[in-house]
């Protein structure tokens, strides 16, 4: 058999389609650095990036790897790099678009250098006299000089946002090294300091574990149905005191002791760090701690989803910018993940190997996703976090009671706000009084519908049993400005189909945009807890049935809302849903707009 060759031009096009966020680019650069001193410097206009690490320079294999795709060097086992290709992708993305642009790479130990361009390179050559002069202060290490395109300035400097701030990204990625004083990290000449995201205190549960299967043979069929076994190798707590078993099926709860039928075959090992941090225990640096040489970074200032949940570590490097929240309990009642689920802030860590089966680790490592095995381990971390922290459990119950009281108070206030006034008179011209209907006109439809005996007919005509006919009143009507809605045309079934499709796609079930109750797809009928279509801005105000103003909600919410603005209704009755509501409405309208453009079918 002859091995196929690669079309290099198309391979480059494919590489450039791999998504890399600004954070991914920084992580790829940091992921290939290993030493006790690291420096990242930029010029004032962020046109050039300088990186330095006091490692042992480039070995022979390292020099080959930096100039070849998908080849790792000798230091790969100590870094977070997977196959040596990520750094080339990053350099291609951050260099100016000019094909003549290149990055300079210096191996200070043996005074050799090379250049890397857009998937191009020049071979290693010795330092010239200028290079020796420029690097005479360094005795060892590796140095990169990378010109930057204008987009990098937009991503990291102009936004000045902690979501993409280069300092926060570096400090979170290197959190373990910096907080434990294993690394001196400098950014633009100033040393950065921080605290551990998962505090190493008496409350932290540290579990060294392995996962595998109870089976006869080691090489199982990929489609096997064997249960996943979680084995605690070592724990800093007495596992009997925290009611954990030595070995158990992690894909089945409750986690009871497993009795082996065959032999335990290990597939991988790792370390879990589990802690619930209470609000009162969070300590931040203040501005007085900073000086001319050191800047203290509060990772507590990051967005909630960047610090709460599970961080994935490879060789002590935090590879996921956004913490993992899958299988950890969802969002709190204020729309964020953490405190009201656990009674504190979940700070979990899973230290894995590069070849781990728990996560899908793409080129953009910040977008790590759990596999089925990883989800089982995350569920176990949630179980430990919710059951073995007494102070957090007490706080969680307090928050639950507080949430119930707030919901009751909000519901009571909404009822009071929407009650009809007893005497609100609307000034209007006196209505025209219609003539009273005659007895014959009232009885004629009845007589046509049934055949009656003369006795029955005489009784029907008796004045004592003639239906009561209430004449129209001449008094002015009493209405409530809060609940009075104008008559409106029915929403067409075709419009309902578009609304459902934009909200839930092809699913047969969805959830109410207000209370999140389950809705069933049914365009013809509207039954309780199935589906109705409510206006965000009430119809009596907007006077139209445009579908970008209509959402699928349950009958209970639709009837309770009356003519109140839907967002105001949620703020009062379901305040913990408002953030999710805003996000879902924005997504819903984007999908509607996209469907309109691509189907050429507007409302």
Task: Give the structure's gist in a few sentences.
By secondary structure, the chain is α+β, with helices and mostly antiparallel strands.
Provide structural commentary:
With about 600 residues, this protein is of the alpha+beta class. The protein contains 19 helices and 22 strands. It folds into three domains: about 20-195, Heat Shock Protein 90 (2-Layer Sandwich); about 205-215 and about 225-395, no CATH class; about 495-600, no CATH class. Helix content is about 30%, strand content about 20%. A nine-stranded mixed sheet has the order 5-4-3-6-2-1-7-8-13. Strands 11-10-9-12-16-14-15 form a seven-stranded mixed sheet. Helix 2 crosses helix 7 (about 165-175). The longest helix has 29 residues, at about 390-420.
Helix content: 25-40%
What kind of sheet is the major sheet?
A: 9 strands, mixed
Q: Structural class, from secondary structure content?
A: alpha+beta
Say how many strands there are: 22
The chain-level mean pLDDT equals: 81
Shape call: globular
Provide the domain count: 3
Side-by-side strand order of the widest sheet = 5-4-3-6-2-1-7-8-13
Please mark out the parts with pLDDT under 50 across 5 or more consecutive residues, or reply none.
Answer: 422-428, 430-434, 436-484, 524-528
- Tell me the β content: 15-25%
Q: In angstroms, what separates the terminal alpha carbons?
A: 59 Å
Question: Tally the helices: what do you get?
Answer: 19
Question: What radius of gyration results from the CA coordinates?
Answer: 34 Å
Secondary structure layout:
Elements: H1 8-16, H2 22-31, E1 37-42, E2 48-53, H3 60-66, H4 86-94, E3 103-107, E4 112-116, E5 121-126, H5 129-134, E6 142-147, H6 150-158, H7 166-173, H8 175-179, E7 184-187, E8 190-193, E9 205-215, E10 228-235, E11 247-249, E12 263-277, E13 294-296, H9 304-307, E14 309-314, E15 317-318, H10 339-342, E16 345-352, E17 359-360, E18 369-370, H11 372-387, H12 390-418, H13 439-449, H14 454-461, H15 493-504, E19 509-511, E20 518-520, E21 532-535, H16 539-542, E22 550-553, H17 555-561, H18 566-573, H19 578-599
Parallel strand pairs: 1-7, 8-13, 14-16
Antiparallel strand pairs: 1-2, 2-6, 3-4, 3-6, 4-5, 7-8, 9-10, 9-12, 10-11, 12-16, 14-15, 17-18, 19-20, 21-22
Helix pairs in contact: 2-4, 2-7, 15-19
């Amino acid at each position: 058999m002859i091995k196929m060759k690669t079309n290099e031009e198309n391979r480059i096009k494919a590489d450039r389609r791999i998504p890399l966020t600004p954070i991914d680019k920084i992580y790829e650069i940091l992921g290939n650095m290993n030493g006790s001193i690291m420096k990242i410097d930029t010029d004032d206009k962020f046109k050039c990036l300088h990186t330095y690490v006091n490692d042992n320079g480039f070995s022979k294999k390292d020099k080959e790897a930096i100039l070849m795709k998908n080849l790792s060097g000798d230091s790969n086992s100590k870094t977070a790099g997977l196959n040596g290709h990520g750094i080339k992708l990053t350099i291609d993305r951050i260099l100016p678009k000019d094909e003549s642009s290149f990055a300079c790479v210096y191996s200070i130990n043996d005074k050799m250098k090379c250049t890397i361009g857009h998937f191009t390179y020049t071979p290693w050559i010795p330092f010239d006299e200028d290079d020796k002069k420029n690097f005479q202060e360094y005795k060892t290490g590796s140095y990169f000089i990378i010109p930057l395109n204008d987009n990098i300035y937009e991503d990291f400097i102009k936004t000045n946002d902690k979501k993409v701030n280069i300092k926060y990204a570096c400090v979170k990625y290197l959190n373990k090294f910096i907080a434990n004083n294993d690394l001196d990290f400098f950014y633009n000449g100033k040393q950065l300091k921080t605290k551990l995201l998962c505090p190493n205190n008496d409350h932290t549960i540290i579990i060294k574990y392995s996962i595998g299967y109870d089976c006869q043979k080691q090489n199982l069929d990929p489609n096997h149905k064997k249960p996943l076994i979680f084995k605690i190798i070592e724990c800093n707590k007495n596992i009997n005191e925290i009611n954990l078993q030595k070995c158990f099926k992690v894909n089945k709860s409750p986690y009871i002791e497993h009795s082996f039928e065959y032999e335990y075959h290990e597939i991988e090992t790792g370390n879990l760090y589990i802690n619930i941090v209470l609000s009162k225990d969070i300590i931040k640096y203040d501005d007085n701690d900073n000086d001319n040489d050191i800047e203290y970074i509060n990772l507590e200032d990051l967005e909630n989803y960047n610090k709460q949940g599970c961080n994935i570590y490879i060789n002590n490097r935090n590879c996921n910018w956004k913490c993992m929240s899958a299988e950890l309990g969802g969002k709190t009642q204020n729309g964020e993940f953490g405190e009201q689920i656990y009674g504190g802030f979940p700070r979990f860590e899973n230290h894995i190997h590069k070849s781990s089966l728990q996560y899908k680790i793409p080129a953009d490592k910040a977008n790590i996703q759990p596999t089925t095995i990883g989800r089982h381990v995350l569920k176990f971390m949630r179980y430990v976090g919710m059951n073995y922290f007494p102070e957090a459990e007490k706080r969680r119950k307090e928050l639950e009671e507080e949430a119930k009281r707030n919901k009751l108070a909000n519901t009571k206030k909404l009822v009071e706000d929407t009650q009809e006034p007893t005497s609100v008179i609307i000034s209007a011209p006196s209505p025209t009084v219609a003539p009273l209907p005659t007895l014959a006109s009232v009885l004629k439809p009845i007589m046509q519908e049934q055949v009656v005996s003369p006795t029955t007919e005489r009784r029907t005509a008796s004045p004592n049993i003639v239906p009561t006919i209430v004449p129209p009143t001449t008094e002015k009507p009493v209405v409530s400005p809060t609940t009075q809605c104008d008559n409106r045309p029915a929403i067409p079934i075709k419009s309902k189909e578009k609304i459902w499709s934009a909200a839930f796609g092809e699913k047969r079930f969805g959830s109410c945009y207000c209370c999140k109750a389950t809705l069933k797809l049914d365009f013809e009928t509207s039954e309780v807890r199935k589906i109705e279509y409510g206006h965000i801005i009430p119809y009596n105000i907007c006077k139209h049935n445009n579908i970008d103003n209509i959402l699928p909600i349950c009958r209970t919410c639709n009837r309770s809302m009356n003519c109140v603005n839907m967002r105001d209704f949620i703020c009062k009755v379901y305040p913990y849903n408002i953030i999710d509501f805003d996000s879902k409405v924005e997504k819903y309208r984007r999908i509607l707009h996209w469907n309109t453009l691509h189907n050429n079918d507007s409302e």
